[in-house]
Amino acid sequence: MKLALLMALGVSAIGVGCKAKGESTHAQGPTAIPVKVEIAREMPVNETSEYVATLKSRDSAVIMPQVEGQITQIYVRSGERVGHGTPLMQIDPAKQQATLNSQQNNRAAQEANLRWAQQQYQRTSGLAAAGVISKQELDQAKSALDTAKAQVESLDAQVKEQQVQLRYYKVESPWTGVVGDIPVHVGDRVTTSTLLTTVDKPGGLEAYIYIPIERSGQLRMNLPVEIVDGEGKTIAKSRISFVSPQVDNTTQTVLVKARIESKENLRPAQFIRARMIWGTQHSPVIPVLAVTRIGGQYFAFIAEQDKNGYVARQRPLKVGQMNGNNYVVLDGLKPGEKVVISGTQFLVDGAPVAPQG
Questions:
Q1: Are residue 128 and residue 229 in the same domain, yes or no?
Q2: Is residue 10 part of a domain?
Q3: Residues 6+ apart with CB under 8 A from 251
Q4: What is the pLDDT of residue 60?
Q5: Of 67, 240, 249, 346, which has the fewest Cβ atoms less than 10 A away?
Q6: Number of DSSP helices (H) and strands (E) in the chain, helices first
Q7: Domain that holds residue 255
Q8: CA-based angle 192:196:201, to the nearest 5?
Q9: Do 273 and 287 fall within a single domain?
Q10: What pTM value is reported for the model?
């Protein structure tokens, strides 16, 4: 009898202990996971697009010959700095020199005729004054003298023209600058449409940017433009100074130009990356480390407060371009919300968390 009573009391005590332990466990619930959070802040964000552009010198002379002939000498090298009037190339002037010599000889012969006509006129004038010859003979001598003078003047003009033409056979620099590529060689025959070289005057450059027609409605004068390197770092800033009124039929783009101050790492004919800044808007940003991508959709955990504390809520986001180490959030996040930036791999939607930081 005593043994049965003791066993009953023991079972009762164990039951009470198990019930108390179970009630305690249920009251405490799951343990909150400590996570680091960051307050989503609103920042001014530029709406930008990047395009490939070409740099061109605002003061670049394309050197083409004004005469035809064979190149006999090239005086300069590509990249050489030259002054105004510096000889660049020599085109064979032999034929032109022969033409000039012929004109000069004709002029010399005509000058002799002019001197003879002057002498004849002087003699005729003396005889006419003495009444020895008629006035008609005097008029004839005067006409011969005038004709000789006119012929000499005509030959003078022809000689000067041939002298000017002869100077074209020596190609000179139109200003102080740097010689560009020289695609021709000694011995090549050139025409008036042959490109000999270029001479770029030191100074400013101009970026030629071709904007897709879909963006043409946003183009306007003074729109900010940044020239960036391969890492996205800005190396020059400018604004649009020209917008073409026409669309390129081949590429369906609109040409815009932006003036760039000359820099050591920028050269004419260089391909560059131009960043167009269409405008500025205020949007929340979120650290890249806080964003996960699942099936093409971006997600982030937001620490939301309820009656028992904080829970992690997985929220889909619509993100824009990157701004430094942050994503610009277009939809799904409000400024001031707590974004979980650590321990996201251990979280599930609705998990209790203990925000830190």
A1: no
A2: no
A3: 210
A4: 83
A5: 249
A6: 3, 21
A7: 49-59+202-279
A8: 115
A9: no
A10: 0.55
